[in-house]
């Protein structure tokens, strides 16, 4: 059985592991770059992207994460989406920069403006319960990026080949359809 890793430096790690395992796959908390060789796909969890970047740099993960994202499935949620983006509004440097999108941080407001809204995710769900917590949104996408969902007139989910990203937190709901979709990208039966 292929394993799905969840970058375990900061953020909603255990919630993603539970979702992966609820789909019948094996979830692994990735804390060492050598573990990337053992997994068939990687989830970059929600959390705080600046803190995650500092930890990625401290533990020397960046080159390996970039290389992994070139060919293997990666799913970035909320802060993980920011890590995947090639461009971040108001910031000169990207993080992993693998996904040809521009994101705006905290675009739905601060913590107290967090909300849940039912959205349509193309090809995945007509009625997905999306949880937005200090969520970014996708300002623009290149021609080879597929827009999967919008909320309140803003792009909130995209796919670019082996890369999947969303502004919301699917791991904080009981709805497994986004996780199942990612597992199918990693060719793991659910």
Automatic annotation (TrEMBL):
Its EC number is 4.3.3.6, 3.5.1.2. The keyword Protease does not apply. Pathway: Cofactor biosynthesis; pyridoxal 5'-phosphate biosynthesis. InterPro entries: Class_I_gatase-like (IPR029062), PdxT/SNO (IPR002161), PdxT/SNO_CS (IPR021196). The active site is at 78 (nucleophile), 169 (charge relay system), 171 (charge relay system). Keywords: Glutamine amidotransferase, Hydrolase, Lyase, Pyridoxal phosphate. One of its GO terms (biological process) is L-glutamine catabolic process. It catalyses: aldehydo-D-ribose 5-phosphate + D-glyceraldehyde 3-phosphate + L-glutamine = pyridoxal 5'-phosphate + L-glutamate + phosphate + 3 H2O + H(+); L-glutamine + H2O = L-glutamate + NH4(+). SUPFAM superfamilies: Class I glutamine amidotransferase-like. L-glutamine binds at residues 47-49, 105, 133-134. One of its GO terms (molecular function) is pyridoxal 5'-phosphate synthase (glutamine hydrolysing) activity. One of its GO terms (cellular component) is glutaminase complex. Pfam families: SNO. In the presence of PdxS, forms a dodecamer of heterodimers. Only shows activity in the heterodimer. Catalyzes the hydrolysis of glutamine to glutamate and ammonia as part of the biosynthesis of pyridoxal 5'-phosphate. The resulting ammonia molecule is channeled to the active site of PdxS. Belongs to the glutaminase PdxT/SNO family. This is Pyridoxal 5'-phosphate synthase subunit PdxT.
């Amino acid at each position: 059985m292929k394993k799905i890793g969840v970058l375990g430096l900061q953020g909603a790690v255990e919630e993603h592991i539970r979702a992966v395992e609820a789909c019948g796959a094996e979830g692994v908390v990735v804390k060492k770059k050598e573990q990337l060789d053992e997994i068939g796909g990687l989830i970059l969890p929600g959390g705080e992207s600046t803190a995650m970047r500092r930890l990625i740099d401290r533990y020397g993960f960046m080159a390996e994460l970039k290389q992994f994202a070139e060919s293997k499935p990666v799913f970035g949620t909320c802060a993980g989406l920011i890590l995947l983006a090639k461009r971040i509004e108001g910031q000169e440097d990207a993080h992993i920069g693998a996904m040809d999108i521009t994101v705006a941080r905290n675009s739905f407001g601060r913590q107290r403006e967090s909300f849940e809204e039912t959205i349509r995710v193309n090809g995945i769900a007509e009625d997905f319960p999306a949880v937005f917590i200090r969520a970014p949104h996708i300002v623009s996408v290149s021609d080879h990026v597929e827009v999967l969902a919008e909320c309140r007139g803003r792009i909130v989910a995209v796919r670019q080949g082996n890369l999947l990203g969303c502004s919301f937190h699917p791991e904080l709901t009981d709805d497994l359809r986004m996780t199942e979709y990612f597992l199918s990208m990693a060719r793991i039966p659910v």
